[in-house]
């Protein structure tokens, strides 16, 4: 197996991310697949924000937003008396969560509008991959009322991003000192460039904020997948529920030590259903793999979805078995488990992702019991057409308030 990471690099340019020429996230965000010097400098500037040490400092605020956001969205879902869509539920929860990272201004601008933001993100994810079709299909799509509405929603979301940036620029202008817990302050400082046109710097800032709106949704998709699997496995659900209801979440450390089995279940979810199915790299020099020659500057794709289910590396690879991670991930053969990729370009947000997903699981199961809707107890299916994996069967659930914290439903 090829494990020399020095021969790979990120692509210096990628197509601008648009929906029929309406700019969404551009090409230079510190969280995108793009490489190059601008990406490297921005990543270096942002990296301290995402360390586990810093996540511990931000833990109380993250906990507050996740607990409040989950309770709000769950209660709204229950009051509707309709099955709850896990993709929509956690999509909205994680847009609400952005308030903890510094997005909230003007009386909770972002968290109070989480429903709109989530709808916009889901529409983007639905339509952007479909625009590269036959000319006739593209012509029809451009005239689809939902696509037209989505374009207006994207414009509005970029306007909101601009309003947030204006507010944060004024904050920074008062004393020049960035709040290390405010990701927007970090974005502004990471994009400072006296040699660049101000309008381009503004576009780069907007691209970064829009990228955060989109990337935070990856956690929502993983969490929806987590529950699709867990609620269909009686033993796993019981272990997770009991652990959650006894957990001490007073600090990041106590939460992590209180939720060992829950973490195993998250890691197993990311193995069977990695949020990103594939990664892209550029080969830096000529190389030969057996009888295959790959020339320098070639673009290659590596498939997490294939690696994570390869029978050479995993026993019973199609089974959902959290216990395989009882000893963590250190025992796994290198580069066969890549939910956050690996090496110098490992996902910056992995600690934030684990922290927020654990908190959302606690916020859900501490007070509520989750079950598949009647008749769909065995239904499970994922949309694998695009890069982002999301459940399309089994994601409708019923939630019931738990009166006694020791209660666990045994009805599946």
List keywords for this structure.
412 residues, mainly alpha, three-stranded antiparallel β-sheet, 13 helices, globular
Write the layout of secondary structure elements.
Layout: E1 8-9, E2 17-19, E3 22-26, H1 36-46, H2 52-79, E4 84-85, H3 86-97, H4 114-127, H5 135-142, H6 145-175, H7 183-190, H8 198-230, H9 234-245, H10 252-258, H11 260-272, E5 278-283, E6 287-289, E7 292-294, E8 299-303, H12 304-307, H13 350-365, E9 368-372, E10 381-383, E11 390-393, E12 396-401
Antiparallel strand pairs: 1-5, 2-3, 4-12, 5-8, 6-7, 9-12, 10-11
Helix pairs in contact: 1-7, 2-3, 2-13, 3-4, 3-8, 4-6, 6-8, 8-11, 8-13, 9-11
Question: How would you sum up this structure, described in words?
Answer:
The chain is globular and about 60 Å long. Strands 1-5-8 form a three-stranded antiparallel beta sheet. Strands 4-12-9 form a three-stranded antiparallel beta sheet. A two-stranded antiparallel sheet has the order 2-3. The protein contains 13 helices and twelve strands. A hairpin with a 2-residue loop joins strand 2 (17-19) and strand 3. Helices cover 48% and strands 11% of the residues. It has 412 residues and is mainly alpha-helical.
Give a quick summary of the entry.
The protein has 412 residues and is mainly α. The chain contains 13 helices and twelve strands.
Secondary structural class: mainly alpha
Series of H and E elements: EEEHHEHHHHHHHHHEEEEHHEEEE
Apparent shape? globular
Q: What low-confidence regions span 5 or more consecutive residues with pLDDT below 50?
A: 10-16
Major sheet, described briefly? 3 strands, antiparallel
| Total number of helices | 13
Report the span from N to C terminus: 42 Å
Strand content: 5-15%
How many strands?
A: 12
- Please give the order of strands in the largest beta sheet: 1-5-8
Mean pLDDT: 87
